[in-house]
Structure formats: structure tokens, C-alpha cells
Specification:
The structure is a single chain. α3 packs across α4, α3 packs across α6 and α4 crosses α5. The two termini are 29 Å apart. With 173 residues, this protein is mostly helical. The chain has 2 domains: 48 residues, no CATH class; 111 residues, Winged helix-like DNA-binding domain superfamily/Winged helix DNA-binding domain (Arc Repressor Mutant, subunit A, Orthogonal Bundle). β2 and β3 form a beta hairpin. 67% of the residues lie in helices and 7% in strands. The chain has a 3-stranded antiparallel β-sheet with strand order 1-3-2.
């Protein structure tokens, strides 16, 4: 739902033209173009948000998107095993290991082997990590507000609900 107060946006116009071009090129085939457009726009939106967040907010703190996500998850839910942390951050366990190593070198997280099973490792924020996420998150949330400023509160809630539907449909498979 476009906001009635919106002004013409060349980037949006280009995306609409791209969608028309796709339909013109492939329209003789039985594809679900509406689904193609929604999924490709989800991908583009996620990539755009991530790039801008890393450039405008996170790089100033020496954080990547993944590093920020790890700090945020640990801040909200507390210490957890690496397998659960990887799942919560939607990262492969190997990718998480590298990111946790970087955060550990920065003094933001600490790993500890579990006494009951030395193969299992937990990760938690250090005092510095806690200070970092408490400083960064309000700035990041302001960035989120700015990125979604053209949507009303109701539109934000509706968009979030629609995205939850797509995400949970994926999780069912």
C-alpha cells in the first residue's frame, strides 16, 4: 500500500519497469509473476537494508551484520550453545564459528566449554559486548525507523505479518 504522501521515486519506478520487462520477456510462459515479484523484492529489500546498515551504522563500531546479530541475540536471550546461537542467527555453524572468533578477538563475547560435555560450547557477552550492544542498538533502531519511515504504523504491522507468513511457510518445509 503506497503512502498517499509519497513522492515519485526513480528507484521504485525502475523496479516497476524491471517487473514489466520481466513479464514482457517471459509472459508467454506459465509463471506466477506476482510471487516472483514479491520474493525478489523481499530479497532486494533485505540486501538493501543490510548494505545500508553495515555502511551507515555497524561499520562505525567494527561490526558486520552477522556480528551485530550475534550480539543482539545474546543480549536478548542470554548465553547459549553455539548450535542454538547459529540457528537463532540463521547462520551455518561454521560461519558462526568464524564470526564468534572475530567477536572474541574484539573482546565482545566469550566462549566456554560445558563441564557436562566438553564438546559443547556456550557463547555469552562480555562486559564490553554488553556495553557495545546497549550503545549500538538504539542507533540501529533509529536506522530501522528511518528505513521504514514511509510506512504508517498499520502498514508496518501488516508488512511484518505478511513477512511472518512467508517465513513460517518456509519453516514448515
Amino acid at each position: 500500500m503506497p503512502n498517499d504522501n509519497s513522492t515519485p521515486d526513480p528507484a521504485s519506478d525502475k523496479m516497476l519497469q524491471n517487473e514489466r520487462d520481466i513479464r514482457a520477456r517471459l509472459g508467454d510462459q506459465p509463471f506466477d509473476f506476482d510471487s516472483l515479484h514479491v520474493i525478489s523484492n523481499i530479497y532486494r529489500a533485505a540486501a538493501a537494508v543490510r548494505r545500508r546498515a553495515e555502511r551507515e551504522v555497524l561499520s562505525g563500531y567494527g561490526l558486520s551484520w552477522g556480528g551485530f546479530t550475534i550480539l543482539w541475540v545474546l543480549w536478548v536471550w542470554g548465553e547459549m550453545e553455539t548450535a542454538q546461537l547459529a540457528n537463532e542467527c540463521d547462520l551455518a555453524k561454521g560461519t558462526l564459528t568464524g564470526m564468534v572468533s572475530t567477536l572474541e578477538q574484539q573482546g565482545l563475547v566469550q566462549r566456554e566449554r560445558m563441564q557436562t560435555d566438553r564438546r559443547r560450547v556456550t557463547v555469552d557477552l562480555t562486559t564490553e559486548g554488553l556495553s557495545m550492544i546497549e550503545e549500538v542498538f538504539p542507533i540501529f533502531n533509529k536506522f530501522e525507523s528511518d528505513m521504514s519511515a514511509d510506512l504508517s504504523t498499520d502498514e508496518k504491522r501488516i508488512a511484518a505479518e505478511y513477512l511472518r507468513r512467508i517465513i513460517t511457510r518456509h519453516d514448515e518445509d
